[in-house]
Design a protein that fits this description.
This protein has 125 residues and is of the alpha/beta class. The chain has 2 helices and 8 strands, in the order E-H-E-E-E-E-H-E-E-E.
């Protein structure tokens, strides 16, 4: 059996269809700190580049492209401090679904305004 040349060479962008752009921009940019900027040519598109180089974006839902059912996608962002994240989220009125602390790291599970599952992961130490 010969090895195939990879078809997918890298991760280009992760984007989420959202039902309310203002609410989602607040959640992802203003609360989580993702550097989102509105596209100069498309008011239904916000995107930014994470420190890892991966692009992350939001696109307004439209016919044929709606937010996925909650639970069908999980987005996992790296954070530095679980306690700080929980405090900021609670101050903003975000419901914390769970906090798990293990030897391999800690996670905070929340949902975005459309119900997408979001995990915030902190490495140990």
């Amino acid at each position: 059996m010969s090895a195939l040349t990879p078809l997918a060479r890298d991760l280009e962008i992760v984007f989420v269809y959202v039902s309310d752009m203002d609410r989602s921009v607040f959640f992802y940019r203003d609360l989580l700190g993702i550097p989102l900027e509105q596209d100069a040519h498309d008011s239904d598109w916000y995107a930014g580049r994470l420190p890892s180089g991966v692009r992350f974006g939001l696109h307004g839902a439209h016919e044929g492209a709606q937010p996925q059912p909650p639970g069908s996608v999980v987005i996992d962002f790296r954070i530095d401090d679980v306690d700080e994240a929980v405090a900021r989220l609670e101050r903003a009125g975000v419901r914390i679904e769970s906090v798990m602390r293990e030897r391999w790291g800690s996670t905070v599970q929340i949902a975005d305004p459309d119900g997408h599952r979001i995990q915030l992961f902190a490495r140990p130490g």
